[in-house]
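We treat protein structure as text, and this decision shapes the records that our systems exchange. Such a record has a labelled line for the sequence and another for the backbone structure tokens. The record that follows is passed on verbatim for readers who wish to inspect the format:
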Amino acid sequence: MMAEKTISRRTLLTALAGTGTVALIGCDPAGSRQAGAATPIPDTLLVEVDGGLGVLRGGERLTIPHAVAAPDGQAVYATAPDGAGTAFWRIDTATGSASTRVTVPGQWLPQSVSADGTQVALTSNAANATNGRPDGRDVTPVLIADVTGVRHRFELRGNFVPEAFTTDLAGLFVLEWLPARAPDRYRVRVVDLATRAPGPLSTRLKTPVPPGAEEEMRGDGRQAVLAPNRTTLYTLYTHQPDHRHTRDLVSGRPGNAHAFVHTLNLVERWAYCVDLPHPFGEAPASGHAMAISPAGDRLYVLDVTSGHVAEISTEELVVRRTATLPPASGASHAAVGHDRLFVGTGTEVRTLDVERLSAAAGWPVREPVTGLVLSPDGRRLYVGQKNAVSWHDSATGEQLGRVEVPGLVVLHGLAGRA
């Protein structure tokens, strides 16, 4: 199991590249395999480069232009135009084997995979829960499919974007953008797949949110992290001045949260926001990062611009500790193991002792960091960089290997293992 399951606030539409002499061994509009990487990568990785989603495995790369990965990285679901319809299929990331393609009527793109990796929500356009504001529209077509074909097909009145499934697969969490034709804010709702009707979430006390008390968000959704047990989705939001949570709207308090972690329970359908202390949310969103512990009991949020770190108890949903680091500039990325928290900013990777929540060590890398991923045993730290992925001894920082990945945007996480 990966030490960190992270869903970047970009869509997992990725493509891969290798190093050395590359021989094309298969190519079609929906995906290709290439081989010839000079140094095999020890673990299978999901990466994003310009144009698609990809799997980097050993000395081979698999490129898929229109695809989305399951939360655990075990599978990728892909689509491709097929006449008047859309071909849809599943790829096993451990072996590269693909399911039989099924054709569904209409033109669709995959947006979200259920936590168990079996069902996919698709929409008719590229707008998704991680890439910003959608275009205005009055109606949103939605398709739910698995490897056998269509499970549900319906239209939602308004401007909706799928985000996640309920654990029992009976509901679909969506972002409803308001107003529909000129969206400038959104709220999280859940669609009952039996009735196809969207409705409000529950509070943490499992009571329905009263009418008029659904919180609406305008800021930046920086990053989302799925709990290791796949029951809770945590999303970091920044730049939310004067934001009012549901609890503020119910109580009449004014509210003024600049940054918080939106906690979405996929089993019981409730949401709760954990406010982050000042100065979180004041600096650029790209300088914020989040990582969850392997046990899922601690969530770490960082703002490298101010140098602040917050540790959240996922059981209590409160900030338990804070610490400071020397501030830095630029985009930040994080990964956490059993005893160390890794922070990548610019051309440096820093480590923190999670027991003391204090700086431990650090080491330089060649190019600016574009993602951090720990190996399953915690011994290797993969570092995405400009056009490359390197891997290091997680205890010492010694570089153990490196492959070129032209066009790399983000190193996302671990893929499946055979």
Observations:
- Residues 201-329+332-369 form a domain with the Methylamine Dehydrogenase; Chain H fold (CATH 2.130.10.10).
- Residues 334 and 343 are 5 Å apart (CA to CA).
- DSSP finds one helix and 35 strands in the chain.
- Residues 246-251 form the longest helix (6 residues).
